[in-house]
Amino acid sequence: MKILKLLFLVGLFVFISCDTIVECVINKRPEIEDKSFDVGNVNGYYYQKLTSEIKNETGDDNYIYNYEIYGDLPGGLEMSTDNRILIIEGMPNASGTFSFTIYLYVDAPEYYDEDSGQYKDGMCSNSTSKKITIIIN
User: Fold this and answer.
1) Can you say how many angstroms the Cα of residue 132 is from the centroid of all Cα atoms in its chain?
2) How many domains does the chain have?
3) Three-state secondary structure along the chain?
4) How far apart are alpha carbons 113 and 86 in whole angstroms?
5) Could you list the pLDDT tens digit for every one of the 137 residues in the chain?
6) What domain of life does the UniProt record list for this protein's source (predicted)?
7) Residue 100 phi/psi, 5° resolution?
């Protein structure tokens, strides 16, 4: 039985790249800041920002961050980005509770692996999402 387990492990390493295993142990992946959004007022200026990062990475600014919003952003508010920062601002024109999901997709800097002859990015995951709720009174 021990021989079967050993053969299984050897086969696993043959078919799975060690780089992939190491990358996921280090767990380099994008994260969106865990933050509650402020309550806003109709016709009052609203500003909120989220800063994203790459977990277990000191060179966060070397990545390209792409944000998308799915759901109901309050009327009068717009999204803008500045690489790692997502900004929602404007003058809300209706009251209510608005829920949406922010999706973050990250393009990592690639490096050339001479052993495999391929370009790699060293990420375990290239995307994440976070559900957000904004209340406008």
Assistant:
1) 14
2) 1
3) CHHHHHHHHHHHHHHCCHHHHHHHHHCCEEEECCCCCCCECCCCCEEEEEEEEEECCCCHHHCEEEEEEEECCCCCEEEEEECCEEEEEECCCCCEEEEEEEEEEEECCCEEECCCCEEECCCCCCEEEEEEEEEEC
4) 33
5) 556 554 455 454 444 444 455 556 667 889 999 999 999 999 999 999 999 998 888 788 888 999 999 998 999 999 999 999 999 999 999 999 999 999 999 988 766 566 776 666 677 888 999 999 999 99
6) Bacteria
7) -155, 170
Task: Name the residue range of residue 83's domain.
Answer: 2-136
**Which CATH number fits the domain that encloses residue 55?**
2.60.40.10
